[in-house]
RNA sequence: GCGGGUGUAGCGUAGCGGUUAACGCGUCUGGUUGUGGCCCAGAAGACCGUGGGUUCGAAUCCCACCACUCGCC
């Protein structure tokens, strides 16, 4: 279980792989839609399968608070609960503790925080995060880490003195053998800290390695640079997971730099905010230019039977169907992009594919 | 018919003698990367019901008219 076979290499450094999980094989590079509260908002598992999704991410923090991880366990685990029989991944709750909780207190042992739902007090430690994730029962579980602001060298350096021991504690606390524990490399935008973090984790022989703390405010150029630094120092024969990244141009640029797994709320969040991802950018369907536009979003969209004018109407009227249709479109768009990239890698022409795909996107700026 | 009240941006309102008439919603345009159906930033939009008067100066005070509204015949 959890073998990672590399099945194709591209001159760029990108690779295709097969990651074996108890609920099926992931063909990488793969994009995972996010199902925070045990649902990819607006979509059923049936829709996800038809769109070609293979991996779904769900959130430890959210499920712990509501409905509770022990309830999910008692009802047969997360796969059974949400009726998704493919591979699942849960994050550790670390990120949400930092991004959603108003008041939180970090110490060497863990984090005390308040629920964003009712203000009640809670505490996560590496041990409790693993226990919750074992109750949920995803195929891939994540180490409890701290996601620090990426530009503050002293803080990021000190943060590693928590994240690294926490990873070892996660390993020690883990009991189930049917779940793969991934470590999360931190280190902000600093080369020495990133290399230090990767060097610490590589010998732990984890089934996979995530890159955290990116796409949190630094520039795209800085993010890509971090990926290039990590490329030679992460174990080659293990999947590499870039957490929270899902802008189309970022997916392409990260696959070029050796990333195998992605997750992101972007396609479903943009959908709920009325924006459609299309080749070369995105369409804000609130814009008046679509008022009488009878064309589909794109010819190959899973919702190509609907006009932009109709979708604009649904968005402006805040109709539920707008969320459903645009979620189908945006998730489908990213999954199709991943499929195209896997084929390009097999054909050893990813650089050409990327150059063609990225020509319509703006160049990454040093500071944004 | 009599008496009272109200007319300010598409809608709801604030301002009640003193720069360039304000706010919310809506509209328009950006933003959204390990998810609060949000949120943030910017823009357009007003013969202040109509006509007259008082005043250095009127959305603001006075008169008439019109419209809406409440009460009473």
Write a structural description.
The protein contains 14 helices and 16 strands. The protein has 368 residues and is an alpha/beta fold. An 8-stranded parallel β-sheet has the order 4-14-13-12-11-10-6-5. A 3-stranded antiparallel β-sheet has the order 1-2-3. Strands 7-8-9 form a 3-stranded antiparallel β-sheet. The longest helix is centred in the last third of the chain and has 27 residues, at 320-346. The termini are far apart. It binds one RNA strand of 73 nucleotides through helix 5, strand 14 and helix 11.
Per DSSP, the total helix count is: 14
Shape: globular
Mean pLDDT: 94
- Order of strands in the sheet with most strands: 4-14-13-12-11-10-6-5
> From the alpha-carbon coordinates, what is the Rg to the nearest angstrom?
20 Å
Low-confidence stretches: none
Major beta sheet, specifics? 8 strands, parallel
**Which structural class do you get from the secondary structure elements?**
alpha/beta
Strand segment count: 16
Percentage of residues assigned to helices: 25-40%
Beta-strand portion reads 15-25%
Alpha carbon gap, first and last residue:
42 Å
Characterize the quaternary organization of these chains. Answer: single chain
Run of helices and strands: EEEEHEHHHEHEEEHEHEHEHEHEHEEHHH
């Amino acid at each position: 279980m959890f073998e990672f076979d590399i099945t194709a290499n591209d001159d760029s450094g990108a690779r295709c792989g097969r990651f074996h999980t108890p609920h099926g094989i992931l063909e990488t590079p793969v994009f995972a839609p996010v199902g925070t509260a045990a649902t990819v908002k607006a979509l059923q598992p049936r829709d996800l399968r038809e769109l070609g999704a293979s991996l779904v991410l769900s959130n430890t923090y959210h499920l712990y608070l509501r409905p509770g991880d022990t309830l999910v366990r008692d009802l047969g685990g997360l796969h059974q609960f949400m009726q998704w029989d493919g591979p699942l991944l849960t994050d550790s709750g670390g990120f949400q503790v930092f991004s959603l909780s108003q008041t939180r207190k970090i110490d060497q042992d863990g984090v005390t925080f308040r629920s964003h739902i009712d203000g009640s007090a809670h505490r996560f430690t590496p041990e409790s995060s693993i226990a919750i994730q074992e109750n949920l029962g995803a195929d891939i579980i994540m180490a409890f880490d701290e996601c620090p602001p990426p530009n503050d060298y002293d803080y990021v350096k000190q943060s590693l003195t928590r994240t690294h021991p926490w990873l070892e504690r996660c390993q020690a606390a883990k009991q189930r053998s049917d779940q793969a524990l991934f470590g999360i490399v931190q280190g902000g935008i600093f080369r020495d800290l990133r290399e230090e973090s990767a060097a610490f984790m590589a010998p732990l022989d984890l089934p996979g390695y995530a890159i955290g703390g990116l796409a949190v405010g630094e520039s795209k150029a800085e993010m890509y640079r971090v990926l290039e630094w990590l490329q030679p120092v992460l174990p080659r024969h293990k999947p590499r997971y870039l957490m929270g990244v899902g802008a189309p141009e970022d997916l392409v640029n990260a696959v070029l730099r050796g990333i195998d797994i992605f997750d992101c709320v972007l396609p479903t969040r943009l959908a709920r905010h009325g924006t459609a991802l299309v080749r070369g950018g995105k369409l804000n369907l609130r814009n008046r230019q679509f008022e009488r536009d009878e064309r589909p979003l794109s010819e190959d969209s899973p919702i190509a039977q609907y006009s932009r004018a109709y979708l604009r109407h649904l968005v402006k009227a805040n109709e539920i169907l707008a969320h459903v249709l645009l979620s189908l479109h945006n998730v489908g768009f990213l999954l199709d992009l991943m499929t195209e990239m896997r084929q390009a890698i097999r054909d050893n022409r990813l650089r050409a594919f990327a150059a063609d795909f990225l020509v319509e996107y703006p160049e990454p700026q040093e500071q944004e």
